[in-house]
Each structure stands twice: as C-alpha cells, then as structure tokens.
Amino acid sequence: MVQDQLLARDIHDPRTLAAMTEVPRHWFVDDAMQGRAYGDHPLPVGGGQTISQPYIVAYMTQALALKGNEKVLEIGTGSGYQAAVLSRICSQVFTVERINSLLAGARRVFDRLRYFNIRSKLDDGTLGWAEFGLFDAIIVTAGGPVIPEPLIAQLADPGRLIIPVGDQHEQVLQVLEKKEGKVQTTLLAGVRFVDLVGEYGWNK
Ligand code: SAH
Known about the structure:
Elements: H1 2-7, H2 14-22, E1 43-46, E2 49-51, H3 54-63, E3 71-75, H4 81-87, E4 92-97, H5 100-113, E5 118-122, E6 135-140, H6 149-153, E7 155-166, E8 171-179, E9 182-191
Parallel strand pairs: 3-4, 3-6, 4-5, 6-7
Antiparallel strand pairs: 1-2, 7-8, 8-9
Helix pairs in contact: 2-3
C-alpha cells in the first residue's frame, strides 16, 4: 500500500509514511472486508459511512505538515483509522463522531492498539471541542457546505485546518491557514466524502 499507492504518487512526508506503515488498517475494517483492507479505494464501515481511501488519508495528513508536538482535532471519527494515523505523528488527537456505534467501534480498536493519546466524544463536531482548544491542526473527514465558524475560532495561530467543501456530490479539499493574525485559504484536489451533518453542516 505504502509503496504502490503513496510513494508512487505524491506522498513524501516521512512522518506520514511512517504512520501509514505502522497503523494496521485491517483492524479498522469489518471481518467481511479483511481481504480488501489495503486496496486503493474507500470501504464501507457501517451506518452508510466510509473509511477513506489510504491515499486520501495520507494526502490530508501530509497537508497538515505536522512536526510532532501538535494537538489535533478531527471531526468524523468513523472507523478511527485517520485518528490512529494522526496519533502516531502528533502529541494528542481529539476526535468527534455523531454516530454512537461507530465511535464505540473506534474506541475498542484504539484501546487494543494502546493508542492512549486519542480522546473521543459523541457530538456534533461542527461545533468543535472548545474545552480542549485551541488546536494546532483541525481535520474534517466529512464534506460540508462551508467551513464551520466554530472550527475557525478554535484553530490556533499558527494553525492549519483541512476540510472538503462543496455540495453533497463533490467537494474540493480546502486548507485554511492561520498565521500572524491572517487567514489564507488554498484549494487542493477534488474529492468525494460523505455528508458533514450538523449545525454548521448539512441538515439532519
Ligand atoms: N475519518 C474516518 C472517515 C469517516 S467518514 C475514518 O478514518 O474512518 C465521515 C464520518 O463523519 C462519519 O462517520 C460520519 O458519521 C461523521 N460525521 C458526519 N457529520 C459529523 C458531525 N457533524 N460531527 C461528527 N461526526 C460527523
């Protein structure tokens, strides 16, 4: 997976590559899909949600340009795989999921792997997690119509936020960077994510 899907494309950040090598992706995938866990595609994780394609996980992780001591907020825990990858690179991960069964499954895997620097909660992640902010980086792994205002407020300066923004069929990955009091947004690749559902996302 790392050789053919990441190195062969544009993933070159050593921290991202090491984390993608270390985290056992098959632990985050249902028994019925074990044979496809390392394939070049997303997979269903239940509740109509998906675990992203390995390349997209690596691409978004690399875009955060983490150095090792950051506090990172993820919205959309899903299987827990993206949070697990981040947890190998930064000091603390906070992750928010709105579907209870998914959160419970992800927590079981974090415990089994002894990834104790991940903290999670059941909530509408478009509101962020103010109690533990500010965050050096924020990653949203579901697609919304706009960048949720509370997330911009909870981003540290300097800090980076990555989120797919668009309609419910296709989105563009946007990176919002805060630096010396200024905010700058860069558009990256076109992508397709499941809906970000919540107060600053799509309607329930
Ligand atoms: N990062 C996940 C992929 C998740 S798919 C992984 O590595 O497996 C997107 C997830 O976002 C889904 O589980 C969905 O339930 C969740 N989600 C959607 N809107 C949300 C919201 N407002 N707050 C928290 N989670 C949300």
